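User: These chains co-purify. Model them together.
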Amino acid sequence: MIFITILILIVAKALPVLNTNISSVHFFRIISIVFIVTGFLSFNTLYLETIGTGIGIYSGLFHVTQISQFIETFFYLIVGLLLIGWPQIITKVNKVKYYLTDKYSTDYSLIILFSSLGSSLLISSYDLISLYLSIELQSFGLYVLSTLYRNSESSTKSGLKYFLLGGLSSAIILLGSGIVYSYTGTTSFESIYLLNSINDLSFPLSSLGGTEYFLQGLTLGLLLIFIGFLFKIAAAPLHNWSPDVYDGTPTIVTMYLTILPKIAIFMFLLEITTHFGISHGPLNIGSFEIYTSFLVESSIYKLLLITSISSLIIGSVLGLSQVKIKRLLAYSTISHIGFILLALLINTEQSIDSFLFYILQYTITNLNLFLIILALTYTHKMNNLNYISDLKNLFFSNPLLSLCLCVCLFSMAGIPPLIGFFSKQFVLYAAIQNGFYLTAILAIIVSVISASYYLKIVKLLISENETFTKIESITENENENEANSSDLTSSSLSANKDSYGVLSLIIELTNVHSFIISTLTLILLLFFIKPSLILNSTQLLSLSLFYT
Amino acid sequence: MTSIFINLLVIGMLFSSVLSITSKNPVISVIFLITTFVSAAAYLILIGINFIGISYIVIYVGAIAVLFLFVIMMINIKLTDILDTGYNYTKNLPLAILIVTLFIFIIFQTLPFSFNNIALPFNFSPSPTVSFVLDSAKGNVEGASSSIWSYVAFDSNLISNQVFNFSNLTTLINRSQSDMLLTQFEQIQVLGHNLYTYGAILLIELSIILLLAMLATIIISKNNKNI
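Assistant: Joint model of the two components:
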């Protein structure tokens, strides 16, 4: 953690000075390597013996646990992979190749450094103040990121919208933490948990008024904090900004916006919900559960239940009527958030296991999906792949890439041998085991509905258009990776030729990009052969949360 | 007397903040914003948080709001444009109603209606507060000031009474602030002490945010031709 922070800081501060010496290609590559190295460092701290139940660092303002370290490792790895997504633009001036990238790419990767520093701090924050500061650092980076392409009107518009609504949700979080502070007199989570548990055990409701009063205030504050965070992850009744924002920003920014901040926020929500023991909700009132602890529990439980169900429904039903591909992906994100929140609110060992697994799976799938869409955008002749109908007939011009896209979509829809099926299955299994029958049935129905719009894309991919039948024959006896990259280069050579004389711009996919796409797709496909790695690790993590 | 004045200030603050949102003319709304800031600063000073109140006036009123005023006067927004875009946002009204209903449902499922009337057990303001907003603000004041001065008093009170009082628990739990029991600081000293010892990492994080803010303004407003 300390290493990571310092490392990122040094890089972020030092590189603008060297900015003139390093070309932009090297710039984001260096940063992506830095991310992978920091991921490795935080992976190393997993082996520390003392980490046990978690260490508070920086005078208790931050808190390192095994889960936070694991998620940080994963997070940095994903960011490192995500930065690869920039295309190379090859400029030929007098037959000498110059490798350029998009002019925004250095700023992009620099801001991503800041923003992911904020999210990694958020994952391990253990105090209301540090929580607020890190969420601000994270989302401030995101606002800048979404207004990065300031020449395009849609990007600026969506960035402004994101900024205003994100500011609103930050204000709600701040109000909530103010209320919590005013009723408990402390900002540290540890103290708040302690107060809550003392109230649980020894003082029944009626003996003194102060305890009850404290708990009500704490509940109100926590509710407000939760609402703010649900706003930030665009869970359903508060989802309204997300399709507009995701649609307006350029795809490479959207990729960051949809995936990574949500991981951090979910980890934080996991931290709070498990420590307040929002476990069974109203199910075991009769047993040892004392009413006072039930107060904090039940309110957040209800909040999570309502948002989970409504985001399941809204995400899949409204997604049916979308014609733009990024809006559709935003709605599918909302429905996936419904699943994740469902796993979060059940809050048993098994459901936390499925929660972590769902987040890992969803991140990988979504990253792959966006990388493919980026690749299609670059190889396709048009500048931006906006509408679903643009994907029409793509299978015949670019079979392997669209095959990867199909695999991704199937995995999101939850077709059995793919990884998405298993995650949904675990969530539903945990739900049924704990008596959430109605919600489970609803989730199944809704996932069938949402499968229909994924299948709509797949159908468009392979639907043949009579006026434009151009089938490229590609040798398929090579393995997928090589075929993939060769196919990409062959199609990209014909892609973007300016008839400008001397200067011709060719957008070319990097080899790493296509390699990552193929690897991720293979992970999605072949997960069921050896599932023990991811499953064991998530299970161990969820056990470490409960039995320490 | 002071509490009445404080309540009046808070009401004025709320009123002017509502007016600053609803007023049609941007210049007038900025003036109401300044009113809000001034009354907030006066509120802070009256309840004993002098330094932050004064810095509120210096920073917000002196710098930011005046800057706002200048910018709005310079760019000369047409009023009709603002009014036109306003209609765009009323189409989400059903969603807003849904959200508010759900929120109120959750709140009143868990909190009783009599929530507003109970005073804090260690609240030393004599008059029961009128509305919830005032109440929570008082609680905040209480927390802030008690963390600095009044813990000692509470402790002696607790020992004599032998009744479980809530502030006892708070002192036990607030490890960082138990240092404050030994010495008395001035307000700025307290702030500095907390910020430079206990919350040094917060200071670093704040400086990172500031760095990002500077970088962001440079990135967003720079001329792209020289890359």
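The mean pLDDT of chain A is 72.
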